[in-house]
Amino acid sequence: MPGIIAVIGKRRNDVSCKAVADDITDRVYESQSFRRTSADYTSEASIRILHRKKDDYGLSDSERFIIAWCGRPMYKGRLLTEDTADEMLKSGEDAADSIRGLTGHYQLLIYYKARGECFAAADKISTHPLYYTETPDFTVITPEVLSLKALKRCGWQPTIGTGAVFQFIASGFLWGDTTFWEEVKRLAPGHFIKCGENAVELHSYWEMTFKPERGNRRFFINELSEAIDADLESIPAGKAILTLSGGYDSRGLLGLMKVRGVEFDAVSYAFGFDFTTDSDAGVGKYFADKLRVRHRFYKGEFGEPSVVIDNIRKAVVATGGETDVVASQEALLGADFYRLLAEEYDYLVRGDEIWGWSDHIVNRDMAFWECSLLSLNEFPQPAKYLKPDSYQRALEFAGEQRKSLAEEYNQPGANLDDFKDFVYWRHREPRLLQNIAYFRRCYITHIAPFLFDRTLSVINRAPSKFRVNKNLYLDLMRSRFPELFLDGNLPNPYGPKVDKFQLLYQYEAIRDFIADCLIVNPPLHISDIFDPVRFEPWVRQTLNVKPKTSASGSNIKPNPVRQFAGKALNRTKFLRSRVKWAMVRNGKRETPAWPNDHSHLFRLGILALALREYEDY
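The structure corresponding to this sequence follows.
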């Protein structure tokens, strides 16, 4: 994918960094389809940028330093260019101060030639991935973790962490800075590293640690409105394509982009299903038609299983297999979908956000499962197939991890909803949503305006009572676009449906593919912790279940007692949250991230594919 590769020598040995940098660059997914921009400083530092013609990037190689970036960093309100980069570094600020003064979505690297020091930074959301590791001779930075396989010839021997395997089983994505290799870390949002002759130092320059200010709801609605409008001015020139669903976030962008006069079309999609009005895509078209925006529909085809399997493999290689949704969504659309968009549009716009996640919470465990950082005893499948000792180790690991992650939010007097939204910013947004975005960036520039800096600043200052369930954002959108948010005639997308995984499993080639990954030729780390006696029957049974239409939406008959109870609970978020917690703990209700057997089996298949890549070293 597009990004910066850097090899920084430690000045202990006479080892040239250039050959290593070239090897890693060649290992990047579809590297042959990208352009390359390079800078080398003697044998001590080699920097490469992979990019497409339409990508935003830059490299300045001066007498004192090399600075490289991908994305759209802003310095003092101006887009970073070679001129502004020189100005920034000649201003007398050190690299850390310069990084703190940047805004926008980017990855950035600064190398000081005389000192042999390198600084690499991720933005506040980690929209552009950076991974790093060390050897005795150099520090390596790359946008793709699996490209580090090139270090084998240097004697580098990484190990796979069982904790990462447990995280993936639980959440479908990795937490914090974890990768499947224990020796490799991912650069966290709002962080930078300093490296050179000494060991890598990790520093934080910004965190979503909430600092609520005084103000009523109307005050913060106005603040958010002004921030969003100002951030939208940063959208680049050119023609955009908005991915439009029935959800609130893309719906809001539809209205905002239309009002601003942005040149754009909208696209909705489905996986294995034709277009229907009573679907997510149907709701998207309904609102696009309402604002007279051209709407397109794309169907992810399952009819050629070999193509589906090939796309899944590519997605795992490109993203390191760190998120199952890349395979279960982006790969099922296929690379051709994004190539098609890239031919006709300059960039893709998405409604990714951190407005404030889910209900009010009553304790920290609830915060973790609301953000999908589950323990393996909070949903049923792992107990069916893990060896007893592995299951117990996984529970102990989750407990230790939650304790460690809770300590990250060191804010005296902070309330639980602030903690929950911090966990969402630190773990779910960068590790799930942005990992999905990484794959899209292999083909087309990805823009998420609701994650720009001014908007983040307002969310950071808003009291938690305004953030719960996206309340502040929704109040703003209802007032600005009542035709989009107060329409009682929109189609119902929640009617009966067939699970897309059940539909996939009707193809023998897909069933054989999943079985081969998990049963016939499983990776070692699957064999070590899974109980084959119990696991294989569960896999076979799940693969062979006939598709069933889910009973939801219009098929559910109204229950007056349940309706009355629901209305009563909705009057007080605190009571509703306590009832929700009690029902989950007593097995009367599923956690929000509870997977069904079919989706969980697919997750395990992706895990096995990823582990094959890491074990094949």
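Confidence is low (pLDDT under 50) at residues 551-566.
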